[in-house]
Fold Trehalose operon repressor.
Amino acid sequence: MNPKYLYVYNEVADKIENGEFSSNAKLPSEAQMMKKYGVSRDTIRKALTLLEQDGYIQKIKGKGSFVLDINTFDFPISGLTTFKELENKIGKKSRTIVKELELIHPNYFLMKQLKISKEDQVWKVVRIREIDGEKIILDKDFFRKKYVPVLTKEICQNSIYEYLEKQLDLKISFARKEIVAREATQQDKRYLDLQDYDMVIVVKNFVYLEDISLFQYTESRHRPDKFKFVDFARRKF
């Protein structure tokens, strides 16, 4: 026989998955759940703790337990997945909005990231990614002009990688990635539908060609409730 807290956990999880408890809804109080299920406060707290650990709810001290949006999108950590490829995989209505496209000389920060000098030129591309009517990703891409002589708004709205690989015949090989949580900037707040979130998940990509030339630096800034970053790991002996 399963422990009582697992029964409570399973019933609440099912209601969240079935939409009976909608995203951002407040769950009944501990006292109300104790009465409903005929169990102790400790049992309810164990169930709520497990629900929080599994990403169903967020407990806020003094306010209660709130349902999280479980309809997150899997974004692979390994591999180089473009937004267009993600778009095709999730099958959701989406849109790319190009906010900035310009050829610039790098500042000190970009010189350091791309390992270039101030005489080099860099394409700066800032795009908003909208899924199901919500602006949830802000992509800031920087490409070395040495490898990407021309970029247009039309290319940036469609797929830059498709253009690089099929038109320019660039052999994109691998990337070094960093994933960090950062406080949302004013630009994040202006361009993204952050709701009440004041943090974003930033994925930094340093992308290399087949000849190990570093040609791209990217910051992809994600609303934290909309994505799971997933990987497959195999233990080596």
